[in-house]
Amino acid sequence: MAVLVGCSPRSGATSKPAESDSTTYKEAFPLQYSSLQGERIDEKGLKKGHSINILRDICEAPLARDRNGDILYNEDGTVNAASYEYDEKTKRYVLPELSDQQLKEMALFTGCLSCKTSKFNDLYEKQGASAFGSVYNADAKSVVDGEYFDCGMCHSGSPSAGNVSANLMYFKALGEGFAEGLDPKTAVCGQCHNSYDYRSSIKTEGDLQKFRPYRYGTDMESLFKANYEDGVNFNVDKETGIATCTMVHPIVELFQNSPMAKLGVTCVSCHMPKTTDQESGSTYTNHFAANNPLESEDSLKYCLTCHENQGIGSTDEMKSFVQQKASGLAAAHADLKAKTDSFLSALETAIKSEAKDSATLDQARELYAKATWFERCINTQPTITVGNTVAMSDSAALVAAGNAACDEGMALLS
Ligand code: HEC
Ligand code: HEC
Ligand code: HEC
Ligand code: HEC
């Protein structure tokens, strides 16, 4: 029987020392590791978190997916299983062994990993740009080795406060310096919570160089222009040629234009507060970044360092203040949605009746696309409650821009 020397069961004989692995640093930094595995149930009853278990399901589960390999959520945030077995004993879904052909049909691509683990960087080194479109089979799984949301995504080498940076290649490759220009404590989150919808279009190194979403600027108006031109983040109706925005979570782009970003607040300031371990009394950075800051006393106390000036006296009051702002935004969003729906009917009628020349109709199509774009900037994904980006965006400007696009378009058609 052959004996492999120097090969642990976790890493293949050819893999280099695991610089980024959570398992490597789990024991040295137990508080950071265990907080990173935090999970919670949100107001819609959905499980949220960056834990290895949640991210594994997102990348590996045989669920209905779009061309990028992203899970397709229903309006209410639920998902549709393509094929599944549930093990009552372990309370986990048992994933069937799928052939490469089946993986392809299900759109289970390694591109999904480009914003889930730094192991994607290793796959990219091996496979080049085709790593975005190849199937997530056993070979690729052995490279990832269960290291979802690993330390190496945000730390270079042994984790410390001094080596925080965005390390995932996808965000940086298309970003033209955008990532590098952000505060590292915003960039680390932005490497996944961004507007990118290019994965299924990247087949070659040339594509990686060609796509430049920020070529007109990083504000939402400029980003719209680039996305509309590139034909990403829109679903085009074949019959009418009407494009409707399908973008999800452009959080980092929304955030940099928000009032609080301009004051130097970062994603980490609100989502990863410093906390004290009850047992040892030591202070550390809470790595449960997917927590809702409104459910964290540490986060709410941080808000008060500024908001006390507005007469907000307690963490409970701070929570109510945000919830009130969020309901206001949800109401404004409902109005905007109703307006885009009327715009759509008017546009469909105008296209069918050929009452306007084709240049005018194209202009109206673009304005409709823009209106739905700003609608999606507020309603960022089916799994969230509308309005809860209020602390992270200049929401008044988004509402105004969406309404302006509707008004301008309706005027063209009248
Ligand atoms: C490797 C990609 C990645 C990085 C980096 C990342 N996230 Fe996430 N985040 C995700 C994914 C994927 C989910 C969805 C998981 C789920 O369904 O709960 C998520 C979920 C969340 C949620 C819960 C969303 C909800 O619907 O309620 C919050 C909040 C969040 N992330 C904040 C952050 C912050 C803050 C940072 C930076 C410190 C960060 N994330 C870094 C990928 C990432
Ligand atoms: C999503 C990005 C992200 C990931 C992933 C991440 N960290 Fe961190 N880490 C941070 C940030 C941000 C800080 C705080 C930096 C600061 O305060 O200036 C930090 C700080 C630390 C520190 C310094 C001490 C402290 O608590 O502030 C340690 C140790 C640490 N992380 C360990 C880990 C370990 C271990 C892992 C993997 C299990 C990990 N981190 C994964 C973002 C991350
Ligand atoms: C000023 C504090 C603050 C900052 C800065 C901040 N957030 Fe949030 N974030 C919140 C609050 C508060 C909520 C929950 C609001 C609610 O539930 O009504 C939230 C919710 C979220 C959610 C879930 C909602 C959604 O639309 O998906 C995600 C994801 C998220 N934040 C990511 C980020 C990222 C990424 C950054 C940086 C680009 C960031 N946040 C910066 C306070 C902040
Ligand atoms: C560095 C100071 C500072 C911190 C820390 C801070 N804020 Fe703010 N925040 C402000 C200021 C200033 C404004 C008002 C900006 C304006 O009205 O132009 C504001 C506005 C807001 C708004 C209203 C946004 C709108 O569109 O009306 C919300 C919601 C909010 N903050 C939530 C939070 C939450 C939640 C936290 C903590 C997790 C927090 N803030 C932490 C300074 C801060």
TrEMBL record:
One of its GO terms (biological process) is anaerobic electron transport chain. It comes from the Bacteria. One of its GO terms (cellular component) is outer membrane-bounded periplasmic space. Keywords: Calcium, Heme, Iron, Metal-binding, Oxidoreductase, Signal. Residues 1-23 are annotated as: Disordered. InterPro entries: Cyt_c552, Multihaem_cyt_sf. Belongs to the cytochrome c-552 family. It is found in: Cell envelope. Gene3D superfamilies: Flavocytochrome C3, Chain A (1.10.1130.10). Pfam families: Cytochrom_C552. Its main location: other. Its EC number is 1.7.2.2. It comes from Berryella wangjianweii. It is an enzyme of class 1 (oxidoreductase). It catalyses: 6 Fe(III)-[cytochrome c] + NH4(+) + 2 H2O = 6 Fe(II)-[cytochrome c] + nitrite + 8 H(+). GO terms for molecular function: heme binding; metal ion binding; nitrite reductase (cytochrome, ammonia-forming) activity. The keyword Oxidoreductase applies. This is nitrite reductase (cytochrome; ammonia-forming).
